[in-house]
Write a structure and sequence with these properties.
By secondary structure, this protein is of the alpha+beta class. Helix content is about 15%, strand content about 30%.
Length: about 180
C-alpha cells in the first residue's frame, strides 16, 4: 500500500524540514562564531559557604571581592571585578555609595574587564546594556563575562531575573575612568 501525500502537504513538509535545518545552523553558528554557550559546572562554589557581609572567609575567588588588575592566566584580560549577588543587592566588598545607596565599581576605559559573579541565594542576572553584557547568575555557579568599556562614564548593572519584592532596587554602577 503506497502512502498518498497531497501536493500542499508535501510542500509543508519540505518547508518544515528547511526551517528545522535553518534553526540548527543558527544554533551551531551562535555557538561557534559568536561564542554563545550555556554555563558549565567547570567553576562552582558551594553557595552555603558564601557570606555576603563577612566575605573574607568565602571560598576563592569570592574571598577577595572588588575591582582590581587581573592576575590570572588569560592573556586578553587586564582587569577583574569580583561580585556577589543576593536578594536585592550586589556587593563588591566596598561600602555602598552614601548618596545613591549602591556599590560604585571603578574600572579603566579601553581595558578588557572580566566580571566574576555568583549568587548566595537565588537566580539573579547581570545586565550592562551599553556593552552587551547579559548573563544569568546561578547560586554556586561562577559566571564569567568579559567586556570592554570604550567611553568613560557611568554604566548601570541591573539584575534582570526577578528575585523578589525589592528586585527593582538591585543594581550597581560601573564608573569607567580614563
Amino acid at each position: 500500500m503506497k502512502l498518498q501525500i497531497e501536493k500542499w502537504e508535501r510542500w509543508f513538509l519540505y518547508a518544515t524540514t528547511v526551517m528545522l535545518v535553518a534553526f540548527l545552523v543558527a544554533i551551531f553558528a551562535s555557538i561557534g562564531e559568536a561564542g554563545i554557550h550555556l554555563p558549565t559546572d567547570e567553576d562552582q562554589v558551594d553557595p552555603n559557604l558564601l557570606e555576603f557581609s563577612a566575605y573574607e572567609s568565602n571560598p576563592a575567588p569570592f574571598n577577595e571581592l572588588g575591582s582590581r588588575p587581573y592576575t590570572g592566566t588569560e592573556d586578553d584580560i587586564e582587569w577583574e571585578v569580583v561580585l556577589l549577588a543576593r536578594a536585592w543587592a550586589f556587593t563588591d566588598g566596598e561600602p555602598v555609595d552614601a548618596e545613591r545607596g549602591v556599590p560604585i565599581i571603578t574600572v579603566p576605559v579601553d581595558t578588557p574587564v572580566e566580571f566574576v559573579v555568583t549568587s548566595v541565594d537565588t537566580v539573579h542576572g547581570i545586565l550592562i546594556a551599553e556593552v552587551a553584557v547579559n548573563a544569568m547568575v546561578i547560586p554556586g555557579q561562577i559566571t564569567k563575562v568579559v567586556t570592554e568599556f570604550d567611553e568613560p562614564g557611568e554604566y548601570a548593572i541591573i539584575c534582570h531575573e526577578f528575585c523578589g519584592l525589592l528586585h527593582h532596587n538591585m543594581y550597581a554602577i560601573v564608573e569607567v575612568v580614563g
